[in-house]
Amino acid sequence: MAYTKFSNYRILWAGAVLSFTAMAVLVFIAVNGNTFLLVNSPINAQVSKHEYTYLHNDYPEKWPIPALDKVHMSLENTVHYAFDTPEGRAEWDIILPSGGAVVRLGPRRRPFTVGMFHQIRCLGIIRDILDDLYRDTNSRAVSADRSIIAGHCMNYLRQMVLCSSDVRLETVRAAKGHGLTVPDVTHVCLDWEAVYREAEKNYQTYMNTPK
Q1: InterPro entries this protein is in (predicted)?
Q2: pLDDT tens digits for 133-156?
């Protein structure tokens, strides 16, 4: 089936928009510590005395890990995590911890999605679709099921950005038109590496627990 130049242009334009959105959200994820089971921060690190059963609705709102320290991140462009190179694909393949976006909690090892990893997984899904579109501009390269998942991810990431409401001021190249932010600022973040370490410990505990 032949496709018009307009159709191909529209697909490539949509891919470019998704690329920009994905990169912007990746910065948001690195800067914020929001989770589905929210990650504790030094601000809200009070430990509840309640012993949760992790049955039904009896589980904490926050993933009960040690309070996260504040760390700094200087924003910069990088050759890593490209969506259309072999090296970038390999980096995206290992960006999640060993247990994926899931941790298992409680005596029955109930699975929970950790929001930070959920967000990164969504970026990976969008990256995968962008890669397919750029290698094959035929719109049939993306199945209906994958389009639905991508739509969920775009909306979920949009809501997480709004939830964060980050008001850090960033300079722009131009006061009018399509001014792009210049990555010359340093953000104060929560220690995301500590979240990864806790996720790996959780996975090892789960794997070493008799089923």
Answers
A1: UstYa-like
A2: 877 766 566 778 888 999 999 999
Residue 50 lies in a domain: no
Indicate the DSSP class of residue 107.
T
Whether residue 91 lies inside any domain: the answer is: yes
The rounded mean pLDDT for the chain is 79
Report the DSSP beta bridge partners of residue 63: 39
How large is the C-alpha radius of gyration of the chain?
20
What is the H or E stretch that residue 28 is in?
Answer: helix 5-31
Same domain? 95 vs 199: yes
**Which residue segment(s) compose the domain that 33 sits in?**
2-44
Q: What is the torsional sign of CA 20, 22, 23, 29?
A: positive
pTM (two decimals): 0.74
Q: Cα–Cα distance between 81 and 71 in angstroms, integer?
A: 22
Angle between helices 115-135 and 192-208 (to 10 degrees): 100
| Assigned domain for 68 exists | no
Eight-class DSSP state of 34: -
Domain count, the chain: 2
Three-state SS for 201?
A: helix
What sign has the CA pseudo-torsion 152, 199, 47, 188? negative
Backbone dihedral angles phi then psi of residue 104, each to the nearest 5 degrees: -120, 125
Please give the share of the chain, as a percent, with pLDDT higher than 70: 69
